[in-house]
Amino acid sequence: MLTGEVGKYWLFTQSFTNMCSVKCLRRVLLWCLLSNWISGKDLVASTVASSLCLPSGLNPEFRKNLSKAGESYPVGVVLADWSSAHVTSAVFEILIEEVLGYNIYVDPRSPASTLDGIYALIGCTTFMNAVDRGCTDRNAKLHMMSESWWQYYAGYYALAEEFHGEIPIEAGGMGYTGSDGVYVPKAILVEAENETGLALEYYKSYHPQWFKPWVYFGNVSDVDTSMVLPCHLVGHFTHNASTFVYWSKTGDDGGVTIVNNSYKVFCADGFFWRAAACRSSPWKCILFITAGDGWGARAVMDKATFLSMPLAIAVANSAVNYVTIPHFYKSLIYWWTPDATFMDLNPTKLVFPPYNAYEWNERQVYTTAGEETPSSKLISHDLEFLAPDIVKLLGSGTFDINAVNSMMAEQKGSGLSRKKVACNWLKANEERWRPWIPVETACSLGFGLYDETKDRFATLRAGATTCRACLPGTYSMKIVDSVGVTYVCEACPPGQQQRGAGAVVCEPCPLGTSKGYQSIENCAPCQAGKYQDQEGTLMCKDCPNSTTTVLLGVTMLSDCVCKEGTMDVNDAGQSTFAVSKECVECTEGIRCPDGATLKGLQVGQNVTGFSGPAILEGYFSWSKEPLSIYKCPEPFCPGGRPGTCQGGRLGPTCSECAAGMYWANDQCTVCEVPLKVTWFVAIVAAFVLMIAAYYGTDPRYRARATVKECMSIGTDLMLAFVQNLGILSAVQVPWPGELRVLFEFSSIFVLNLKAMGFNCASHGDMQQYVLCAGVFLAVTGTLPTLGALSHFLPSLKRRDLSWNFYKTICVTGKFLQSGFTTLCNIGMVPFMCFLHPNGTHSILKYPNTFCNSSEHWAMQIGGTVVLLLAMTHFIVCAWACHQAPVWSRSTPHRLVGIGFLLANYRPSTWWFGLTLLIRGPLLSFPAVVATNSPGINLTMMFFVLQISFALQLYFLPWKAPILNIVDATATSLFLMLLAISLHLEDANRSLVVLELVGVGVYYVSIGVIACVWFVSLALLAWQRCFAARREPKIVNLGALPDANDVLSAIELVTMSLAQKTDKQKEFLLKKMSFEISAYDLRIVGQALDILFDDCELRPVSQSAAGATARLAAKRMSQMTRRSITYLRPSLQKELEEEAQEVHADTRIVGAAGALEEQPEGVDAEVEVRQVHSFNSSISSFRDDAL
Fold first, then answer.
1. Backbone CA torsion sign across 611, 613, 619, 620
2. What would the pLDDT profile of 957-997 be if each residue is shown by its tens digit?
3. In 3D, which of 263, 468, 333 has the Cα closest to residue 10?
4. Contacts of 1150 (CB under 8 A, 6+ apart)
5. Taking the complete model, does pTM exceed 0.85, yes or no?
């Protein structure tokens, strides 16, 4: 639909005909046109009339604004730039102001098209700028537009998508339609009818074969070509596609030309396209004038060709000439209605065959009349909420085309403003517009009664002041009262909802939702475990037992799936409930989210679309038996789909590579020749190492550790530590990555040699275990055999290199002693069976070997043999330790055979090696009794090491003090590592036992301390009540040596030293300096300090500066009478000799006299205690001296 006021009335035509030339008339018409446009613009700018129109109109001071979000503003009007919109909009503006009582604001920018008006109502700030409409910061302050042609605009629905919820909506039709086409001026029609009765308003009257219509029109040759466009400048004439379609449909070769491979309309004189009906006789052609880029020209060409109409089409080169030409030349006009441009010519539309949509839209043949376009009012999306009465007014108000034409004619003829013309129409047609005015409480469908004073919806007309659109969750319900029909907003009943505003009915709850009560709320989606496959229900249905839903709002029973932790093992249960779902509990090692199915586990998918069921990391199952889960003690089971192992590993626990392959670089690698040779060389090297071990071993025992011995003992400590770590590495704890690598390295020392390519030397769990167990049996048998063979080799005997019997025993024992922890661990390996989730058992170290299988029985036999070897070694060592003190005095050469057992320890703790032998099997034993409970396993290991640690701290067994510190530090750190391991372990599997152990430890620790206190209290009472003179043995952890024996020993030592020559004393000095144990030498020094200080035997001439740092008890002054009497002669003699040597020291004499004057009333109990203290010191000295 074309828009815009492009012409004005023809003024003073007759008066100027004789006075001016055509050129003069054109100038006069141009002046009239422009002046009329300017005056019209000035009138539009006025937004408020200077006076009221209607007698009962509401004065401006009583009018109201719209209110939204706390903001108040008038009703905004978009005034289109064409005459019919001007007058019809003015009618509505007056009614809104003076009857409804709203303030009006007319935007001074007049849109030239409906598209501009749509952008204005959306809230775009620069809605007339086709390049940038300014829609980024939208703010809808314009609310209504009269006479829009939005149906004509094909892009309206695209805009509706772009500005969803903000697009303007139609507020009702205008009451008339718009129509464009070919029009005939009234004067020409009258002339033809009067002269010949020819009805020129019908297309058939233009057929040249039967009629001569050209006689009533002007000659085309008389037209001033300066007023029309050349054909090559007309858009429709030069459009290639359009012209080609015309030519292909009509076959009019004479009306089309081809220029540069492009189809163009052919104009013989360059200005007029002549139809075939008059092309050979140009004087018969009837002028058809249009404008723009050839508005309607293509449709008129089709009609002229197909209907044989003698037409010549020309396009005016300006709006002024478009208006001028029909007034000077009798012609047909392209025009549209309603419009005031050619109203003075009173043209009539030429009648063609009725509109044929198929011809126009599909065939692109335009021989029928064009489609009439409905005209309607547009409002902003929010006006129906802001002012529903205005919406009602616009919806009710309609005009007929005659009313609009009369108002346009009045405005054009009188020059009155549009508001004045509209006012005149309103005054003359009150019976027409009065029904448009809505009753405030006469609500329309989609609205309900509303009380503005209380800001709420009302249920009765008496409590309402206006109408408002029903809110979401309600619907508009019709009621009839004494006044008439109206509507109220009612909450949706149970089982129904309404999401939109202004609804007339509530909708049933959709599938997957329900609503059990009347409210404005929407239907709630079904919660987890429920579904609804029907609409409009009050509640959702429960899923069958053991099933649930993954999403909310489930609509089908088939969407009920097995709950998390269970799996549907029914092959057909994945689709529908035609076959019921069989949900079973998932075993350990399977991740079963909601909706897990057996088929989903096999293919790695889930029916819910989320992550599906999968084998957890650290577990394995076969593809054919996906629910039979195996636990992998080694980190080679990545999980995921059944049958998945890392790096090509094999077996139900992914614990081995195929034959001829070994594990390297995170994958199974083919064994290469160099690796096989390496293992052969290792065997040979081990044989050579056994021979070298014999000749490199020094079996002699030294009480004091040398630097070389410290290094050797440190090596033993390190070897024992890494063996303990190797045992710990077998505990089923999820070690962190780097720590796991370190444990894997430590496991080599307990003969876990898979990482070193052991598969290349043997294959299969059975072979590997036999080889590991055979190492100890082989070495234990090989060393004595080599010793025996050495006596049959003359060359060795001549060089005195044949093996000594006791030294051979020592080397063999040293091997078993150093590897005793590993020996016991290997012997217990076949008895460490851990449980798989599927109920089967595997050997912890060899998980591909199942317990109670033939291989397992054979391995248990081998393990029993190894344990017998370990037990034999321990029994022999225990017997040797028992005999060692005797042998050291009677047959010291035998000590060479047990040098491996004694060499590392102090003479007083020679037996401590037995505790380490016991510790080895005790560390491995928890894995036998608690294989499936890592927490219990770790706790038992912790207790074993804690006891070992306590014994070590009490006895300080190692010869070098630094070694005791190192061993204590290493053991404490290992205890810390065990504590960390307990934190990493999943305690759920052993929580009950650990809880009992924890409670037991708590009560035992409290009980031990309480027991000591109560025992001490009881002993104190016993001493007081029964006058006991001796301290109980429990206090001193055993009986104290007799004081007489101690004193006798001191006297013997004194006599022995007195009989020594100087050389003997020098030899004794060297022996004390280099051979006596460091701990023993310190004990001797401490004993002497006790004698010197506590017994006051230090000679006066000797200074105490070099004494051991300790408190001097000086108990001599508190000794009993019996002790003093016993010691008096010797002490008196010693004091006299000392006095003579230092010239009678008076202090010593005084001290001797004081001894004679000791009072007899000394408490007997105190005397006894002092004697016991003295005797204890002497006893300690005697034992160490011996």
1. negative
2. 888 788 888 888 888 888 888 888 777 766 555 556 656 66
3. 333
4. none
5. no
